[in-house]
Amino acid sequence: MATEQQPSRSKNPVKRGLAWMENLSEEAYAYLLLIPAFLVLAVIAFWPLWRTFKLSLFEDELFGAAKVGDFVGLQNYVDVLTNQNPLLARPLIDLTGGTPFFRQALLVTIAFAVISVIFETLIGFGQAYIMAKEYRGRRWVRVAIILPWAIPIVIQGMLFYLLFNPSVGFLSGPLQSMGIFGANPLTDSTDAFIITTVADIWKTSAFMALLILAGMQSIDKSLYDVAEVAGASPWQRFRHITLPLILPALLVAMLFRTIDAMRVYGIIEASGAGCGTVPSLSCLVVDTMFGSTQAYASAATVAFITAIVIGIAISVYLLALKFSSGGTHQ
Amino acid sequence: MEDQAAENTDGRTGAVTRRRVLQATGVAGMASIAGCYGDSGSEAVVISGNQNLAQNLDVQAFYDAGVSEDIDIEITAGPEDTDSRSEAFVSTLDAEQSSPDIMMMDNGWTIPFISRGDIVNLEAEMDSSFIEAVKADSFDMLVQTASNPETGDMWALPFFPDYPTMQYRKDLFRDAGYTDSDFDTWATDPPSWEEWSATVAEVHEQSAVDYGYVWQADSYAGLACCAFNELMSTYGGAYFGGTDTLFGPVGDRPVTVEDEAVIESINVARDMVYGEGESSQDITQCAPEEVFGWSEPDTDGAFVGDSNAVAMRNWTYTIGMAEGDEQFTDGEELGVMPMPYGRTESEVDTEGLGGTVAAQGGWLLGVNPHTNDMAETLEVLRAVHSEEVQAAVLDGPGFLPHQPDLVESLAGDHPAFGDYSETLAIAGDSAVSRPVTPVWPQQSQQVHQEVNDAFQGNKTPSEAMGDLSTSLSDLEDL
Predict the structure, then answer these.
(1) CATH architecture, domain defined by A73-328
(2) Does A60 touch chain B (CB under 8 A)?
(3) In chain B, domain spans
(4) A contacts of B17 (beta carbons < 8 Å)
(5) What CA–CA distances, in Å, run from A79 to A54, A74, A83, B32, B298?
(6) pTM for the full model?
(7) Contacts of A63 in chain B (CB under 8 A)
(8) Superfamily of domain B45-161+362-424
């Protein structure tokens, strides 16, 4: 007769630990496996954020070997927000009105994010509808729509530089004669802002289109059949079926795009406009941090303000997601 | 007996246990991390130069100058853009990387590196007789930009100087009726901007090229340090009072960008492009509006690459480009002269300004304090001051020697520079440096932004210089 043997309790800590792990529930085991990922995140995200904030509490040291000078608390934030910091190439914001709109980094970044995300969403919708339909040659249309997204930022920038450089581009002349742009659009803050925004919309609409398409394809087609039978117009079908059902996916896509847009830097430099002409928040950080005179504290201040602004944008989206989810869970 | 490794107290069984998952994950993680470590430094002494240097400098010259054959020398191409190069070195030194051992640094931004102690103090590491010889033999302005402004110690070695000159198409001028006599005169006695602008406009009108005078007036560091600096200086203007205060004392020198001479120089630049008579002189419209968005590559393309301009202000490397085998082969003929003058030296109040002025450009060699072998690195660096290496730098990449004596003796026989050695000597003598201090990078940004705004009419010259004066003063007071 077989005797049921009780598992012996090992005194070896490794074996005891392994045994404890074996006995965890599935949920607890999943969290255990996530701990390394959380630790990595803490190291590469939270710790640098803390260090950035800490740097921003000191004054800049320009003349010695030390990276920063004395502790000054929040003075750097006051100076940056009141345009009293001479180390910044362009003001973060100038409430006195002495600086043109498109030369204030915070306003340029917010305007860029709002305009590009709105247009990318609208154009993305249109592209998603086109990609969702069945017709001959759909495959090539999809390739054409997605191609801009596949182009590297540097190539994208070069394309627009070549379009708008007065000596080689074919667009600058006609647009100048129409009074839309000046003679050197890439050296004018307003013109260059428009060019970089258009460049970003051209490239990134495909990203929005793909995410919207994924949302659209998850909708049960029978809903449209029922609506059509009930006499709903195309707009009504869109407003009462499509939009509510893809709203969560759409908000997530807009969230990703907004975060990316607020970090804009590559297209500004690659298009030839340059950070002096289109000063985004990231531009301000790079110019201040990595120039020959390294103003670490000022750069850290702008970087932390950028993180706060992005955090506010994320919060807005999360609230919108919460309300949209509450509406769909009937 | 049941396999305990495959069963836990819940009765769950599986082909892959949690222990196996943990083991596999741990091994995979360790393997992937292990590849991240390892010394990436090179055994050779690495000099971070530019593409021209990396492709064309024959390192045999170093061995001919006495460097041990046991020392490998490698020349790499760092970023071509000067700002990008500075940023790359900042990252390299912050990360305490051992390579490159020697860094080619723009004389316009070396002093901030010196102030922070980021590079090796050569005066502390090398014998004093060598240092004194370098200081005595090399161009003064180049040595000053390689030295600590407070102590005078030399922290970097002069590598090669560079000066802008006025380069023009002799063939187009001949077609317009000008002769060798004119060219010979201009080579050592340049005309005024009034005369030159009218001459260029006249030649342009009679030629088939698209552009008259092309120069670099984009909002970038080159405008502040060089193109605008020399235009302003030739009219008697200065950022901080004159040449005595170029390197300091920061915070204790006047900001003089609102002076009449500076405003006049901006109006002259605008008249060259728009021809609206804003300056007090009779400047003829001779430059395209595109120049307000152009830097060196754009002007090189227009004048040398496309042979599509009458004249160009540019550095000496374009002389080598134009005289090279692949350029100017269709009847084009290059002429070189010192930069035209705005006012004569006797007409301006400030000593050292007025007359023909060239911006002091040039490059230095700084030593990475984290180099793997300081002795070998310094041995290679010492050889740069030799005649052998300077001759090789002239013959290959086409950069001038950093010793005035060698400019005359070596450049005089050079196939590209030989015809222009007198002009280059005059340019060297009339060089004015940019005001390099630890705050100059930030000041430079303000300068080129405001000056370009004034050029393009986004602000009046007075408004732009008023704003600039405020910005410069704030930075001086830091």
Answers:
(1) Orthogonal Bundle (1.10)
(2) yes
(3) 45-161+362-424, 165-359+434-476
(4) 22
(5) 16, 9, 6, 45, 38
(6) 0.82
(7) 115, 438
(8) Periplasmic binding protein-like II (3.40.190.10)
Smallest CA-to-CA distance from A327 within A220, A251, A267 is with: A251
Residue reference for tokens 């949209």: A324
ipTM score of the complex? 0.77
The token pair at B413 is 């026989």
| A&B contacts, CB < 8 Å | 109
Name residues whose C-beta falls within 8 Å of residue A22's C-beta, 6 or more positions apart in sequence.
B8, B9, B17, B18, B19
Shortest distance, CA B136 to any CA of chain A (angstroms): 28
Any idea which architecture B165-359+434-476 has in CATH?
Answer: 3-Layer(aba) Sandwich (3.40)
- Judged by CB atoms closer than 8 Å, whether chains meet at B440 and A29 is answered as no
Nearest neighbour of A22 by CB, restricted to B18, B438, B440: B18
Closest CB from B4, B10, B22 relative to A7: B4
> What is the residue-level pLDDT of chain A in tens, covering all 330 positions?
444 444 555 678 888 888 888 888 999 999 988 999 999 988 998 999 999 999 999 999 887 778 899 999 999 999 999 999 999 989 999 988 889 999 999 999 999 999 999 999 999 999 998 998 888 988 999 999 999 999 999 999 999 999 998 878 889 889 988 999 988 899 999 999 999 999 999 999 999 999 999 988 888 889 989 998 999 998 898 888 888 898 988 999 999 999 999 999 999 999 999 998 999 999 999 988 876 667 999 999 999 999 999 999 999 998 988 887 654 443
Distance from CA of A262 to the nearest CA of B (A): 23
Same fold, B45-161+362-424 and B165-359+434-476: yes
Q: Are strands B309-314 and B165-169 parallel, antiparallel or unpaired?
A: antiparallel
Domain residue limits, chain A: 73-328
